[in-house]
Amino acid sequence: MRLLTHNMLSSNIKGVVNGFPLRIEAEKVVEKTVEMNGEFLKKMFEKIDWKAFVDASRAMGCTELPEEADSSMLDSDEFLNRFHHALLEVHLEEGALVCPETGRRFPVNKGIPNMLLHEDEV
Known about the structure:
The chain is α+β, with helices and mostly antiparallel strands. 29% of the residues lie in helices and 20% in strands. It has a 4-stranded antiparallel beta sheet. It is globular, with a radius of gyration of 15 Å.
């Protein structure tokens, strides 16, 4: 699971008010090379919750992103490379996503998060 995906997921358990961001418990992280697309990154930057993204990237061992970022940084090739790497090349293969409110763990197996709810959570 890419951090791009993680930044779009939230816990939809009945009664949960604060289901974002899901905390990452990484057991296995892999890196997969992806071709750089600067225009895509610039468009996605506007949609990303930066704090959640940085926290998630650090949970997966990717520590080179700044605490805060603004659109002027998109002119820097160094920033774009780091953003690209964390967003698209770092994958959570095995682990869990944890609801910040309930502590419910959603397993991630073979890179696929299982966000299915139990019957009593719907």
